[in-house]
Amino acid sequence: RVYLRVSTDEQDLARQEAIVAEAKAAGYYVAGVYREKASGARPDRPELLRMVADLQPGEVVIAEKIDRISRLPLEE
């Protein structure tokens, strides 16, 4: 699963979109792509919550950087 996030509506996901093609080219099956424009400091992001709910045992999450997934403390 691929998670793409930017913080504001003014930003776009274009740079991060390449991750999807790169994952497929590397032989990964991409079970889902989750795109979001929301602050990484918020734990209630709909696409993040949907991705977490969709995750199956053995699956991995690909993101450009860990701060794309969250800027919250590790416990969160």
Kindly describe this structure.
This protein has 76 residues and is of the alpha+beta class. It has one domain. 33% of the residues lie in helices and 13% in strands. Strands 1-2 form a two-stranded parallel ribbon. Helix 1 links the parallel strand 1 and strand 2. The longest helix has 12 residues. The two termini are 20 Å apart.
Roughly what fraction of the amino acids lie in strands? 5-15%
Q: Using the CA coordinates, give the radius of gyration.
A: 12 Å
* Biggest sheet, spatial arrangement of strands: 1-2
What proportion of the residues is helical, as a percent range? 25-40%
Number of helices: 3
By secondary-structure content and strand pairing, the structural class works out as alpha+beta
* Averaged pLDDT: 88
Separation of the first and last Cα atoms = 20 Å
